[in-house]
Design a protein that fits this description.
mainly alpha; Ferritin
Length: about 160
């Protein structure tokens, strides 16, 4: 059945492509946060283990919301690791033991990169006539800003 939601097929595709890249970034950040949860070492292990668990839980929700937003625009969401790794703008890290400060710095850099990207993508969605995706991205921006603040605060 043809999708008729007041946004052209071309514009829905462009928005979905932007959201697909964000989906890939979020998935990589989620994996890196899981890595921090599993591999953090040091005297603050327990507190950081729980902190990172809270963070990856939020990211898991973002991933689902982004994929469902893409689907609501009648486009397929990226669904394989190959597709996600090809689309991400984040640098992948090896799973290895690190101190909490090392993990916090790496994750903060990624959140800030995602924040900067959302600041570019949200107005583009509005230009393409997709106020829903613009609003969605602004809400996600606020969530990433809060998560970045928490990471930054842990660093002192």
């Amino acid at each position: 059945m043809k999708t008729n939601i007041g946004i052209s097929d071309k514009n829905r595709k462009e928005v979905s492509t932007l959201l697909g890249k964000l989906l890939a970034d979020e998935f990589v950040l989620y994996t890196k946060t899981r890595n921090a949860h599993w591999n953090v070492v040091g005297p603050d292990f327990h507190a950081m283990h729980l902190f990172f668990e809270d963070q990856y839980g939020k990211l898991e929700g973002f991933i689902d919301d982004i994929a469902e937003r893409i689907r609501s625009l009648a486009n397929p969401a990226l669904g394989s690791m190959k597709e996600l790794l090809a689309a991400t703008r984040l640098k992948e890290e090896k799973g290895e033991l690190k101190s909490s400060a090392e993990f916090l710095k790496l994750l903060l850099q990624d959140h800030e990169q995602i924040i900067r990207q959302i600041r570019e993508d949200a107005p583009r969605c509005e230009e393409l006539g997709d106020d829903g995706s613009n609003d969605f991205l602004v809400g996600l921006l606020e969530e990433h800003e809060k998560m970045a603040w928490m990471l930054r605060s842990c660093l002192g």
